[in-house]
Specification:
It contains 17 helices and 2 strands. The protein is mainly alpha-helical.
């Protein structure tokens, strides 16, 4: 996998290289800042199920298309959130301005679509549909900003669109380019969805339970922005004094004192644990999907990965 990761890095940088040095610098800014490249890893791993063989060029290309969609969405997210840092560097909007960040994000999405088109009409259509799902998930989240009555189902639908859909697509593309049988491709797709759901719930739990130093940003940032995630929603739904106190504070922008108070309430009640328990159902979904995959070292690693992810907060 280390060799494949190097191939991914080289291919990522090559994919955004243009005759315009200024555009190349902006488009490659977050690539150069590093990252886990989980979505390309998903595509590669999905292509290797049942064979444990080396990654094909098509698998690398499919993973790159997914990573470029992810990066393009981050450029746009940072503009919406007015973020100033990401991955330890200035955001594109902070360094070059919002207009450049939006256009560079559009450029990354265009390059992703171009690469996907080279892998066939099914992959191209799948990636286009996924970009739409990302937007739908984000819009659904924005509709519930500062809404203390945000339904849990609305939260789950939002993270399915804005996060899990791209993991699902990354895995499905891996299966498609490898020529796996349709039942295997469908199982890989289900696995990607389940992993993505766990990934986002874990991320939302950490936003409320980790320290500012661990996060590299103030804890409770989502809540401060009016985005009430699963632990907060479960704390509110549990009722009692904690829910009443939360309801009295939330529903508007928070000052630093209020943010600390809300963090204390959420951390000291059962909302976090209830969210973790709910995430376990998606771990079970991932393991069920692995049952439908051919036995291999790759499948075994996939089976362990989702539970290991949840174990970081459980």
């Amino acid at each position: 996998m280390d060799s494949d990761r190097r191939r991914v890095e080289d291919a990522l940088l090559a994919s955004v290289r243009t005759p315009d040095a200024y555009l190349t610098e902006i488009a490659s800014h977050l690539i150069s800042a590093g990252g886990k490249r989980l979505r390309p890893v998903f595509t590669i791993v999905a292509s290797q199920v049942g064979t444990d063989g080396p990654a094909s060029e098509d698998a690398i290309a499919g993973g790159i298309s997914c990573e470029l969609v992810h990066l393009g969405s981050l450029y746009h997210d940072d503009v919406m959130d007015e973020s100033t840092t990401r991955r330890g560097v200035d955001t594109v909007n902070a360094k070059w301005g919002n207009l450049q960040a939006i256009l560079a994000g559009d450029f990354l999405l265009a390059k992703a679509s171009e690469i996907a088109a080279g892998l066939g009409t099914e992959v191209a259509a799948l990636l286009a549909r996924t970009i739409g799902q990302l937007c739908e998930g984000q819009i659904l989240e924005l509709r519930h900003t500062y809404n203390v009555a945000r339904p849990v189902d609305a939260y789950l639908s939002s993270i399915n669109g804005k996060t899990a859909s791209l993991y699902s697509t990354a895995a499905r593309i891996g299966g498609l380019v490898a020529g796996h049988p349709r039942p295997v491709i469908d199982a890989l797709t289900a696995y990607g969805t389940a992993y993505g759901m766990v990934f986002q719930i874990v991320d939302d739990v950490l936003d409320l339970t980790a320290t500012d130093e661990q996060l590299g940003k103030p804890a409770g940032h989502d809540m401060e922005e009016g985005v009430y995630t699963l632990p907060v929603l479960h704390t509110l739904a549990a009722g009692g004094a904690a829910a009443s106190e939360l309801n009295a504070i939330l529903g508007k922008p928070l000052n630093p004192v209020e943010r600390e108070k809300v963090l204390e309430i959420v951390r000291s009640n059962g909302g976090v644990q209830t969210a973790i328990e709910q995430a376990k159902s998606f771990v079970n979904d991932a393991e069920a999907a692995c049952d439908a995959l051919p036995a291999s070292a790759t499948t075994s690693a996939m089976r362990e990965a989702t539970a290991a992810l949840l174990a970081t907060v459980a």
